[in-house]
Esterase TesA (Tepidimonas alkaliphilus), 199 residues
Amino acid sequence: MAADGSAPVILVVGDSLSAEYGLARGSGWVALLEQRLAQQGVRARVVNASVSGDTTAGGRSRLPALLQQHRPAVVVIELGGNDALRGLPLTGTRDNLRAMIRASREAGARVLLLGMDMPPNYGERFRADFRAVYADLAREERVALVPFFLAGVADGPQAAELFQADRIHPNERAQPLMLDNVWPALRRLLDAALAPRSR
């Protein structure tokens, strides 16, 4: 939390799924998060540092400056999908995410990791290995995890109606569902960050 007593910052470091790619400004899940916090009277500020097309390597390189600038209470890491789409080694994805988790914690922030999956055409073995990156890191580093950020979107009965024409990026109808996937774990972390610390 900021030392000057200002509202705690939630820093979202993600890719196009969080950067409102192909959406009207203000309609993405991060913007909806800001609205929900305000509606519920939660005193927090959201900084969306997501970049379309970003990889875990890109996020890792950008994170130190973001931590120094914003001094977040909570860091939401939504990265890894582009690594898999580009065929980058999962060992690198794991190492980059681990470094981001540890850097965030060392800066005094709580971490929420958003897990991802790949389409069926990537093969079940690769998909299982990819999902395990998130599950293993959450367990090993003891951080909060949303197992599948696009649950109910990519794997639901209305999946075809919840994506843009490219069939990769969720549309505006999907954004509230994405927020609902993130909200319970994020709210717990934020409540913990806002709780007075015992002396």
Summary: The chain is about 45% helix and 10% strand.
